[in-house]
Amino acid sequence: MKAKIFENRIVLVTGGSSGIGNEIARQYATCGAKVFLADIQPAKKDFPFEFIYTDVSSVESVSNLFKEIRKRVDHLDILINNAGISEFHPLEEMTVEYWDKIINTNLRSVFLCSQAAISLMKHQEACSIVNIASTRAFMSESDTEAYSASKGGIIALTHALAVTLSKYNIQVNSISPGWIVTGNFDALRTEDHKQHPSNRAGKPSDIAQACLYLTTPGNNFINGSNLTIDGGMTIKMFYEE
Questions:
Q1: N vs C: which end of the chain shows fewer Cβ within 10 Å?
Q2: Pick the catalytic residue: 98, 147, 168, 239?
């Protein structure tokens, strides 16, 4: 990919201060984009990001985010809806408040940010939205109901948005990461890597590269799709030996 292929493009990454979101933001900046980070804490890495405090679960906070963006720029080219929390709770003890916390942060935020971004995108020649879902939309462990529902909802919301926003040439896709290591990759065991058909666990850069691919100018025939990036884990059958 050309080093400055996103030069003069304006990108917003929610939850971009750490983990996968920060790597996504970093790679866009490296490729020449002007990057806004929306998060509840500033980024630690030394990159020229413009940080805007945002609680994506709050309607008011998301509204303030886009008001602030409009003060600084007159359009938006790319929105990466990455913000989310990964928490699990026993089903029989789950409260409505806990359910709402997960759904509002992971799923409602995608709706709020995408809706707010339309006015900044619809007069551009071509824009992109990428929503970060999860392979837990398709497969589960016990007591992951709220998280799995939120990620499955993101995928459904993605294809609905792609159809609705086609009149504005806004392309919408989602990415479903598998096991992405945001901590010490070298601390993983050999068996952690070998259980993947790709023979390794994932890195934040794997998701960032996919975002760049989906939003590359002219690459707009991929639309309303979900890209699974999990080293092949969800196509693998498991049996006790």
A1: C
A2: 147
